[in-house]
TrEMBL record:
Transmembrane segments: none annotated. GO terms for molecular function: cellulose 1,4-beta-cellobiosidase activity. It holds the Pfam family Glyco_hydro_7. It comes from Alexandrium catenella (Red tide dinoflagellate). This is cellulose 1,4-beta-cellobiosidase (non-reducing end). Keywords: Carbohydrate metabolism, Cellulose degradation, Glycosidase, Hydrolase, Polysaccharide degradation, Signal. The keyword ATP-binding does not apply. GO terms for biological process: cellulose catabolic process. It catalyses: Hydrolysis of (1->4)-beta-D-glucosidic linkages in cellulose and cellotetraose, releasing cellobiose from the non-reducing ends of the chains.
Length: 158
């Protein structure tokens, strides 16, 4: 909900998963293995952008992400076992439109969220946090044609 002096209204938003959770490939071959770009496809960032593609996402089957029955919340599974692999964690962004992230302006405003950690296993962190990102996900139409629509642009200097 977003509230003003005249009252509150329900806010519908969509979510996108961070590009780092998506498969980056060229014709079914990994462009990223372990923690490094595959030199055959990615000798430099521009070649990688021209050669490799970011796949879509099966939010429930691969990442364990689903809306609740009232469609006013989201459930995130930390571990999701699928036919081919296991996925650990996720990072989601709230969208303002199909191509842009929602930009929260929190100065002199109140923001609240309810996080149910009652089923969160010991040792795991059920956190929500804000990072500053480009509204279009660093989309520039040349080396980054994916943009916010595919969850690009994350930057966090913790």
């Amino acid at each position: 909900e977003e509230c003003t002096a005249s009252g509150c209204k329900y806010e519908r938003s969509s979510l996108v998963i961070d590009a780092n959770w998506r498969w980056v490939n060229k014709g079914g071959q990994n462009c990223y293995k372990g923690s490094e770009w595959v030199p055959r496809f990615c000798s430099d960032p521009l070649e990688c952008a021209m050669t490799c593609g970011v796949d879509g996402a099966d939010y429930l089957g691969t990442y364990g992400i689903k809306t609740n029955r009232y469609r006013d919340g989201v459930h995130l599974s930390y571990v999701t076992e699928s036919r081919y692999s296991a996925n650990y964690g996720s990072r989601l962004y709230v969208m303002d439109s199909e191509d842009t992230y929602k930009m929260y302006k929190l100065k002199n405003r109140e923001f609240s969220i309810t996080v149910d950690v009652s089923n969160l296993p010991c040792g795991l962190n059920g956190a929500i946090y804000f990072v500053e990102m480009d509204k279009k996900g660093d989309w520039d139409g040349r080396s980054n044609t994916a943009g916010a629509k595919y969850g690009t642009g994350y930057c966090d200097a913790q």
